[in-house]
Amino acid sequence: MKNALNKVMPVEWVRRSNCRSRIARDTSSVLLAVLFSSWSSVASASDAEMRAEMEALKAQVRRLEHRLESRTKDHKGPNHDLEHAAKSDLGSAKSDALWPDVFHYKNITLKPGGFFEFGAVHRDRFMGADLATPFGNIPYANNPTAHDGETRFTARRSRFTLQTDAHLDDETHARLYFAADFLSAAQTANLTQSDSFNLRFRELYTSLDRSDYGLHVSAGQMYSLASLNSRGTTPDTFLVPPVIDDQYLPGYTWSRQPGLRISKDLPYDLQIAVGAEAAYTNFAAPGVNFAGAVAPIPANGVSQTLPGTYYPGAYTQNPIGGSLYNSLNAVTFNHVPDLMSKASWDPTILDRKIHVEGGGMLRNLNDRTFGGSHDVWAGSGFIGVTVPVIPKLIDFQLSGVRGRANGRYGSASIADATFDWTGAPQPIHERQLLVGVTVHPTPKTDVYAFAGGEFAGAQYSTVFLPKTAYLAGGVYSFGYGNPGFVNSGCNFEGSYTGGPYGLIGSCVGQTKSLRQLTGGVWHNFYDGPGGKLRVGAQYSYTVKDSFIGVGGAPKGTENMIFLSLRYMPFN
Questions:
Q1: Among 311, 306, 421, which residue's Cα sits nearest to residue 372?
Q2: Pairing state between β 355-369 and 256-266
Q3: CA 66 → CA 55, 72, 79, distances in Å?
Q4: How many whole angstroms separate alpha carbon 102 and alpha carbon 106?
Q5: C-alpha torsion 239→245→250→252, nearest 10
């Protein structure tokens, strides 16, 4: 703006100077004419005639002054507008200087982010959950919670983020990213009066980028390499569905956990990555079988290591957590991290930036029984695609996983593995699939529709064990999805153990699949220098199917409505 003023002001100054010169010349001519006429009148006329002529001359002078004044205003007009524009732009520049998008400390750029959120959820079947839905807990008809709903208000997902960037040298860039919310619940957290929920961090990682090598190294807690990216393979480009539910929806593959990742740029818009991530195994315990027996599992989680003392099946399922872990939560045997790899391709086709990715994960499951360790390897492959079908109007995304022991990477959290009769882990075959479309009818509005599901395969065995001093002999059913498990009580309220009507029938009801259809809308009511004010609504319908067992295959359903009001002061 300053340069523009420097160029325009000299021109206006010349114009105004010329105008003033012409005005001065015209004024002098008028005055000389007046004096000459007055002198002539005095010399040749009477006093009465002189007074009349003087009045006429005065009127003529007033008319000339009026004309000159009008011409002066016409010349001042453009310059006045220019001066007003200059003041306005200078004011905007001062405002931008007072309210920067980022802050600086030494050679570091700090960018705050996040939002305040008031959220609400209504479920037609009680789950005792906040905005993150534990899909595997959808109740069957035997549970009283299946016959009453719930409505929750919350501000716990309000989030704060901070990103720092620094150039260590001409080729090296360093980034730190931190995100936190209040979706943690310590023992003091309650809904009684104070609602004292505590802070937790979602992401905390650092990245180093070398532009000369095309190398990116990230370490810390971040979204898994198995999660879908919008481009490349780095942790800052992960893509989540635009739903309000903080557990997203069945079929979406993700995990936030500590890990190390190395990505490498390649020609032709390609990028490859490898990573190692923290491991954990979700085990599924055996249930009551047709003979009324439950396969033996030590309730206290203590490993039985004396050969001959117990028959197979007496094994450790989940050791209890120790130092700096919550002692109420189990910690599984894991001595090898989950190993990941991914390749991505981001070409531009017909003015559309398309993202295609594919990769795999390798997991090690282990436990220890009878003085020996059981190690089982399990692998899965995953794919993902994002396409702007019509740029800035319709976006499409698809992702999927197929393999063994990938359950904990799905939003439904189906078990990774079960046990056979020797106590060795048995990985469960699982599939995850998600497809969705997001439409942008206006620059302020997003409308989306998604469908997703997670599907598990049966993995089981049935054996006869003789009677001992520590074990009642008989037929025992092990595994996941065993048709010998009893489901006869799943459709009768109160038939669960400890119910008000006693044990009418058992309900093992192991999950075979979880599927969801969902849709929603986001609208920005304000998006400007004061941040962004956004309102959203979502509806979802979820179906939980169990494996068939003695008494049938029960089903559970859940209708949910979510509302969200977000104010984003840093956007």
A1: 306
A2: unpaired
A3: 17, 10, 21
A4: 13
A5: 10
Are the beta carbons of 536 and 523 closer than 8 angstroms? yes
pLDDT in the model for residue 285: 79
In this prediction, residue 52 carries a pLDDT of 65
- One-letter amino acid for residue 241 of the chain: P
The answer, as to whether pTM is greater than 0.85, is no
Query: CB–CB of 486/503 below 8 Å?
Result: no
CA distance 40 to 54: 11
Phi then psi dihedrals of residue 470, to 5 deg: -110, -5
| Token pair of 369 as six digits | 């029984």
**Do residues 38 and 60 lie in contact, with contact meaning Cβ atoms separated by under 8 Å?**
no
For the record, the structure tokens of 282 come out as 């979700």
* Residues 6 or more apart whose Cβ sits within 8 Å of residue 542: 133, 135, 138, 249, 250, 514, 515, 516, 557, 558, 560
Please, what are the averages of pLDDT over each run of 10 residues along the chain (571 residues)?
43 43 46 42 51 68 60 46 45 54 92 97 96 95 94 96 96 97 86 86 97 97 97 96 97 97 97 97 84 62 36 48 72 90 96 96 85 87 97 97 97 92 88 98 97 96 78 83 92 64 72 98 95 97 96 96 97 83
Residue carrying the six token digits 């990216």: 229
The pLDDT, as a whole number, for residue 40 is 44
Q: How high is the pLDDT of residue 366?
A: 86
- Residue 11 burial (CB < 10 Å; 0-12/13-18/19+)? exposed
Q: What number of CA atoms fall less than 13 Å from residue 346's CA on the CB side?
A: 15
**Taking a C-beta distance cutoff of 8 angstroms, is the pair 294, 492 a contact?**
no
Q: Cα separation of 338 and 406, whole Å?
A: 10
Positive or negative: CA dihedral 312, 313, 318, 322? negative
Residue 115 C-beta-side C-alpha neighbours within 13 Å: 15
Q: Which two tokens stand for residue 568?
A: 């984003």
Q: What is the per-residue DSSP string for 128-182? A: ---SS--GGGPPPTTSGGGG--EEEEE-TT-EEEEEEEEESSSSEEEEEEEEEEE
What is the predicted pLDDT for the residue at 483? 94
Q: Which uninterrupted H or E stretch holds 555?
A: strand 555-568
Q: What's the angle, vertex CA 62, arms to CA 60 and CA 66, rounded to 5?
A: 115
Closest CA to 274 of 336, 314, 194, 216: 216
Rounded Cα distance between 375 and 425, Å, is: 8
The contacts of residue 67 (CB under 8 Å, 6+ apart) are none
Instruction: Sort residue 467 into left (φ over 0), alpha (ψ -120 to 50) or beta.
Output: beta
Residue 496: per-residue pLDDT: 52
In 3D, which of 254, 262, 308, 258 has the Cα closest to residue 279? Answer: 258
